Model the fold of this input.
Amino acid sequence: MAELRCVDGSVLCVLPVPCLDRDGVPYEVTLRLERDGQEVGAVGERCGFFVAQTAVRLRAAGPDAFPPSGLEAGLRAWAGDHGQDADQAWAAFGRYLPRDRELLAFRSRDPDDVSAAGELRVVLREERSWVPPRDVGGRGRWRLRCLAVVEACDAGGRGVRSVLDSPGLLAFLEQLLADCAAVGVPYDDVAVAGVRRPVG
Done:
């Protein structure tokens, strides 16, 4: 079961609930959020593909890194298509954006969504700490560390938060995908480019 220990000591469980087609065959999932066994809400109607795509991007980024946001990836691709340096384009544009990057955000917002509303977000935040010099007269430096903050809240805005490093977030997403497969909706066919390959 995909669960996280939150900063307040509670346990957040994210449980996939299969979406069924007219023949009763599961084809996607909605996520049910539970805090200490009590339902908080249900979010992300038909969202499993996006969870799988994020896990693929996280695996590709490496063990101590987070994947670029969709905006960053899009801008880098645009710069390459227009003969510009992708790093320079992102450095010039990135300073105008908020420092916190959203990896995932699921809400209940469509008319056919399940009735229990809520929200689940995964935001990347930078943590800075000053490292003093080792020797007298030496130079100190800033240490930057990127962390994933998983936030879940109910329709009234009451929520919980868990902070994870890159391997911790990947382990959580992989467990969630294993739970999806257990309810009949596997995502083994999601490719790096985000295109589902036909199975069989």
